[in-house]
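User: Teach me something about this protein's shape.
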Amino acid sequence: MTLLAHPVTSQPVQVHAAFEPRQFFYNINWRSKTYHAGATLTAHHGNGSDFAGFASLLACPDPKRIDIRASVRTVPRQWLVRTYLERAAIHVYAIVDVSSSMFFQGQANLRQQVTEFVSALAWSVTRQGDAFGMRAANDTQQAGWHVMPTFQPGTAHLVAQNITRYWQGTDVHSGASGQGASAMHAAIESIGQQRALVFLLSDFYWPEALMQRVLKAGLPHDVIPVILRDRAATVDLPAFGWARLRDMETGEERSWMLRRRLHQQIAEHAQQQADTLNTRFLNAGTRPPLWLGPDWRAEDVSRHLMETMA
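Assistant: First, the predicted structure itself:
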């Protein structure tokens, strides 16, 4: 059930397209299966610099790599050559939830956070020599977000412009109203079965059935959940009085009498939901989620990604 509510009197917040290059770093402990040159270790034998072992000269006819010491120890005698593993690029995807709840406007601007983080991700990926791709969905997959894996260095600027154009062309009070995230699992499935590093961006106000489908679709990949929440939705509520709220995904409106006990219940539920999400992702085999605040720093993102390498 979606618990996020939105004040009916809020005014639209604009999303700017100014791109600020912010680079963070990531790493993996699985081997790439692509053949495009990159920084990730593969299982392909070739002209790399990572020693893999020895092989017969007949199997690997490269006299330049004959190892005399290893050869004289063989019984029966044979020429051995040193073999090395190549390094290659990986595919890194941003899969973005663009359901109605992602249009929430409180202390933070979730759409601006998405724009900045995905643009920084595209910048970081191409700078590291990997391929960046992107998908997005609400109740349907959004073609405007579709980016095939690319190594082009100008991808980050293009991504920032395309995402901003989408936000500015979709009004939360009309076109985006009433949209869930039921097509998120299809967005992940559309990237194929080849293992990739997947950043899954959402507020994760999802029903359990959808969560199960999305996590199942992400099983072939190295998934990093990126959780975006706004404190104004659960913590920084008015201290007392009547508040008229609207559920952004169902459009339902209702009035609440805000009082101290209700504040405690909302805060307790928010904490319980956060703990449940952390446990849910851990049990599903993803990396620990990255809780992305409005003042996020590239250094903190790098630290989280390195410390939680799957």
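Now, about its shape. The radius of gyration is 24 Å. The helical segments are 68-72, 110-127, 155-169, 184-189, 208-217, 260-284, 298-307. If you'd like, I can walk through any region in more detail.
User: That's plenty for now, thanks!
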